[in-house]
């Protein structure tokens, strides 16, 4: 285990879990259990920035501690799967986390072969089709959007890029909707 701040090493996510916990140590305990199921691999655990963390509103009394657990992609997840035993164990753990009120949301992403990288330079867009090698830059944030198609996605991302000055990269990844997306 190492503590941040981090430099970019393997910033290609495979699975994202939003946890609501009482303490950082509780989140670490859940992350360790998740990691034991994966075996070799990398996960990252970080605090979710809340509106009060960035000055948009005053903090409520006893605010929740929400943590983002990110499983980093590897050859197995990029090939589209895990072992049957890992899927079953992850399903059991996520069920336990849900019953404990810890797991708020879980999103398994499809391999980067189905993704698009949007590169905005001075508001000009270049689209690169996946698959992608891992990025060496830190992820600046996540947005999970329920959109109808790629045209709507491009329009949303274009507007976001304009707000942020017109120069950035956005990776568009599809959420895995399959029945075995453990």
TrEMBL record:
Residues covered by the YCII-related domain: 73-163
InterPro entries: Dimeric_a/b-barrel (IPR011008), YCII (IPR005545)
Superkingdom of source: Bacteria
Family the entry assigns: Belongs to the YciI family.
Protein name, UniProt field: PhnB protein
């Amino acid at each position: 285990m190492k503590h941040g701040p981090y430099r970019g090493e393997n910033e290609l996510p495979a699975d994202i879990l939003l946890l609501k916990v009482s303490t950082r140590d509780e989140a670490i305990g859940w992350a360790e259990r998740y990691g034991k199921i994966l075996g070799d691999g990398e996960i990252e655990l970080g605090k979710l920035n809340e509106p009060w963390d960035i000055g948009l509103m005053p903090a409520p009394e006893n605010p929740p501690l929400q943590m983002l657990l990110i499983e980093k992609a590897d050859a197995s997840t990029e090939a589209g799967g895990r072992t049957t035993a890992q899927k079953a164990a992850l399903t059991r753990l996520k069920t336990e986390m849900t019953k404990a009120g810890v797991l708020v949301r879980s999103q398994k992403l499809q391999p980067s072969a189905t993704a698009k990288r949007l590169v905005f330079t001075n508001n000009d867009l270049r689209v690169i089709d996946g698959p992608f090698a891992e990025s060496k830059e830190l992820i600046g944030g996540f947005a999970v959007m329920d959109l109808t198609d790629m045209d709507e996605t491009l329009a949303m991302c274009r507007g976001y890029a304009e707000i942020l000055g017109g120069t950035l990269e956005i990776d568009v990844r599809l959420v895995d909707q399959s029945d075995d997306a453990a």
